[in-house]
Design a protein that fits this description.
about 80% helix; rod-shaped; about 0% strand; 17 helices; Serine Threonine Protein Phosphatase 5, Tetratricopeptide repeat; mainly alpha
Length: about 375
């Protein structure tokens, strides 16, 4: 009796195997007959069946069936079945998981994936050209998954991310391109910007130096490095960069302002004034240049005031009736000159908001106070 039961179990097991393989066989037969609806139904069953789920053949046929589903939707002018193309890609890639040694289905899948890569690139470019940037990125990223070492899809995706102004995507693609030894001015610029945003300033400077070594004439990279040098408190180096940029465009007011500002940060008022005067020669009412020039004059006036107080105190020690003549006292003459200069620049500064007006008013009030105290 026990042997009879064993025989029954073996028969049942054999029948079960045939039933489980039937879905894969049926899928292939339906596919060969051109019945994609039925082929899709059967291959979906085979792809979850425990007996066929790990067979490379299952995933190869799921790939070709879903690829045909996509291609028919595209050829008939319907809404393209992008989901089918994604499933086809995933299926072909699973072949490599189950067929460890390159053989029939890995070789066929490689050819099919090459075709999907071309479809993805071409479709992504068309979407980009019609300003459907998010959709184009979907196709470019599919192409990236197929050929992760090819730079083409990353470059196109970088362009689309730039149109979307997506910092996250720009950094993602730029970083990958650098890993693949693909360089360009824009890729370096994005990568350096990412490092700066993450406060990795030393690494950013290393990358920036490499970038400018390859593209020494690139203005955007030079400008970016200047900003980086400022963050690193390398003011003198920043100035040299700015001067190089200014030499190419001597009438660029912003560059001249930046040079003046950097000299100011280094407490080098003489050189700062030189560049602010260049700004004023090009833009006579520029707020920043005029305000800073007036502030420098006020600061010098304050130094002169200290000298006046010290001199007057010494005079009073020996002559209580001493009273200076503002018209002849050399220190007061120097003070008047500085205050006149401060007023001139402050009054020329074109203010555009309340904060700027407050700054100019403060300068003029300081000037008036010193005039009333020492010059009248």
């Amino acid at each position: 009796m026990s042997r009879f039961l064993t025989f029954i179990l073996i028969v049942i097991s054999t029948i079960s195997v045939h039933a489980q393989n039937a879905s894969l066989t049926n899928a292939i037969l339906y596919y060969n007959d051109g019945n994609l609806v039925k082929a899709k139904e059967e291959i979906d069953k085979a792809a979850v069946n425990e007996k066929t789920i790990s067979i490379p053949k299952t995933w190869f046929y799921k790939g070709v069936i879903y690829k045909d589903v996509y291609e028919i939707s595209a050829a008939e002018g319907q809404t393209e079945n992008v989901s089918a193309l994604n499933k086809s890609t995933e299926a072909f890639q699973k072949v490599f998981t189950f067929e460890k040694v390159s053989s029939e289905f890995t070789e066929k899948s490689t050819d099919e994936l090459d075709e999907i890569w071309r479809i993805s690139i071409n479709r992504g470019v068309k979407l980009y050209q019609t300003e459907k940037y998010i959709e184009s990125i979907t196709d470019f990223e599919r192409a990236q998954r197929i050929k992760s070492a090819d730079t083409t899809a990353y470059v196109y995706a970088l362009y689309a991310a730039n149109e979307l102004d997506s910092t996250t995507l720009l950094q993602k693609y730029a970083s990958k391109l650098l890993d693949l030894n693909y360089t360009s001015e824009s890729v370096y610029y994005i990568e350096i910007g990412d490092l700066m945003n993450r406060s990795l300033l030393d690494s950013a400077l290393v990358t920036s130096n490499t970038a400018l070594g390859k593209y020494p004439q690139d203005v955007a990279l030079k400008t970016q490095q200047t900003e980086l040098l400022v963050k690193l408190n390398k003011g003198q180096e920043a100035i040299e960069n700015l001067k190089a940029l200014s030499a190419k465009n001597p009438k660029d007011v912003q560059l001249l302002l930046n040079i003046g500002s950097q000299y100011s940060n280094l407490n080098d008022e003489v050189h700062a004034e030189t560049y602010y005067k260049k700004v004023i020669a090009l833009d006579s009412t520029n707020y920043i240049a005029n305000f800073n020039m007036s502030a420098y004059s006020v600061n010098r006036a304050l130094v002169t005031v200290d000298k006046i107080l010290a001199f007057d105190n010494e005079k009073h020690k020996t002559n209580r009736s001493y009273f200076p003549n503002p018209e002849t006292d050399p220190l007061r003459i120097a003070l008047r000159k500085e205050l006149e200069t401060a007023k001139k620049f402050a009054n020329k500064a074109k203010v555009s908001n309340a904060s700027e007006q407050k700054n100019v008013t403060a300068v003029l009030e300081n000037v008036t106070s010193m005039e009333e105290r020492f010059l009248k």
